[in-house]
Amino acid sequence: MFQPLPLFVGLRYSWAREHSFFVSFITWVSFLGVAVGVAALITILSVMNGFESELRTRLLSLSAHATLKLDAGAAQQWRRSIAELNGAAGLRGAAPFLDIDAMLSHAPSMSGAIVRGIDPQLESGVSTIADSMREGKLSDLTAGSNRVVLGRMLAYQLEVGMGDGITVMIPGRGGNGRDIVPRLQQFEVAGIFEVGLQEHDSVLALVNLQDAQNLRGAAGPGGIRLKFDDVLNAPALARKAAARLGAGIEVRDWTQENAAYFRAIRIEKSMMGIILLLIVAVAVFNIVATLVMVVTDKRTDIAILRTLGLSPRGVLGIFMTQGVLIGWIGTALGVLAGVAIALNVDVIVPFLESTFGFHIMDPDVYYIAGIPSELHARDVAWISAAALILTFLATIYPSLRAARTAPAESLRYE
């Protein structure tokens, strides 16, 4: 008796057991459709967030958060440049590098590769390559030793193992400065790493920075790699750190280096969200159908309420209350189910695999053998908002139809 009349009558219509079986069935289908659609959206997007995070981690295991390109003068003074960078906001580590496009050969095999010169002592501050070593140690890359550490797939392509020798060939200039003469250097395989990403494991070879400079004929490294505490703020932090070295320093961050990967993931997430939102849309159409049938069934009740003085706006509120209740309770249950599943994917997936005897991500085929999940509050927020708005819009047409009911016409044959 303390509730507004439209809300009171709307709730009575929602919970009343007088509907026909078909109307009740459509109501439950609508309710479950909204819940399943919301839960599926939250779960799938959380899994895609997990894959994105896993891919970002693997990409950055060898690629720093940002790189500073040094000119010839600054390259010779790279130790002083690193000293000036120390203390920059959020900076965790800095290390020199020199990338060289080369051809590696071990008869009868040959493969293109990127030979990267590094400082083994400083490298651990910007990458996790030391933790990815399958054979050998990164510290074995001493200056003047002509030792190389290969990615697992690159070693497989060259058919080499620990202690084998490979020939590194890079283009060079002839005595007249115009002819291209290949420059050859023998290296010994001192280690093999695997980070679980083909772009690294199949093309990257690591050598000591001094050996790379000797091979290239360079006076210093090509740049400095930076790693920050917060990877998402690394682009802005890198530019602030570069300002310590003066103007004219070229800065490239991980979002530029791997833009194609993350653009593809964003597009895929957007399309997946739209496709799964169609599940909610189907449930919304069921809500429309349910309310239309209820309005037809309750024409006499509507006419009596109008005769007793209820305004068309009050009738509108009755049926909007009923539709919104179905949609919002379904959304709430879908959010609870989706969040619960997303937070327990690491438990649910192994249980399903052991129960049914199959692997969703076969470790013999995929680098990522598990199903990662990363729940984002903003995803839950926009999915909930979209479902609530759609269910609210679904109530407008049936409610307007009920509000336009003519009392005299509806009571003529009663």
In short:
This protein has 17 helices and ten strands. With 414 residues, it is α+β, with helices and mostly antiparallel strands. β2 and β3 form a beta hairpin.
Question: What does this protein look like?
Answer:
The two termini are 28 Å apart. The model has no long low-confidence stretch (mean pLDDT 79). It contains 17 helices and ten strands. Strand 6 and strand 7 form a beta hairpin. It has a six-stranded mixed beta barrel, surrounded by four helices. The chain has two domains: 204 residues, no CATH class; 190 residues, no CATH class. The chain is α+β, with helices and mostly antiparallel strands and 414 residues long.
Low-confidence stretches: none
Round the mean pLDDT to the nearest integer and report it. 79
SS content category: alpha+beta
- Biggest pleated sheet: 6 strands, mixed, barrel
What is the approximate shape?
A: elongated
The counted number of beta strands is 10
Fraction in beta strands: 15-25%
Distance between the termini: 28 Å
Estimated helix fraction: 40-55%
Annotate the secondary structure layout.
Blueprint: H1 5-15, H2 21-59, E1 66-69, H3 72-76, H4 78-85, E2 91-106, E3 109-118, H5 120-123, E4 133-136, E5 147-151, H6 152-158, E6 165-173, E7 180-193, H7 198-201, E8 204-208, H8 209-216, E9 223-228, H9 234-242, E10 250-253, H10 254-257, H11 259-297, H12 299-307, H13 312-343, H14 345-356, H15 377-394, H16 396-403, H17 407-411
Parallel strand pairs: 3-8, 5-7
Antiparallel strand pairs: 1-9, 1-10, 2-3, 2-6, 2-9, 4-7, 5-8, 6-7
Helix pairs in contact: 1-13, 2-11, 2-13, 2-15, 11-13, 11-15, 11-16, 13-15, 13-16
